[in-house]
């Protein structure tokens, strides 16, 4: 059980580190966000066990994660269509 918790923590930490280190490309940020969600889903499955009542909660979580990913890809497509690339140089001005 301890090794499994370490695995989930490394999934979450790897995704967080990837988001911090790659802030120039939006596609890499979306993929690392999905990596974070995979770590949270794995920890949710471990903590809830495997009962049928918890199946609805995990399916709802996966539904929200998929909707978030599709919205991110839609924004990426509109950004590439409008500006010609997925570099975030113009979006960094909004950070101030």
Automatic annotation (TrEMBL):
It is a multi-pass membrane protein. The keyword Transmembrane helix applies. It is found in: Membrane. Keywords: Membrane, Mitochondrion, NAD, Translocase, Transmembrane, Transmembrane helix. It catalyses: a ubiquinone + NADH + 5 H(+)(in) = a ubiquinol + NAD(+) + 4 H(+)(out). Its main location: membrane. The chain crosses the membrane at residues 28-48, 60-80. GO terms for molecular function: NADH dehydrogenase (ubiquinone) activity. InterPro entries: NUOK/Mnh_C1-like. It holds the Pfam family Oxidored_q2. GO terms for cellular component: membrane. Belongs to the complex I subunit 4L family. This is NADH-ubiquinone oxidoreductase chain 4L. It comes from Opilio parietinus. The lineage of its organism: Eukaryota, Metazoa, Ecdysozoa, Arthropoda, Chelicerata.
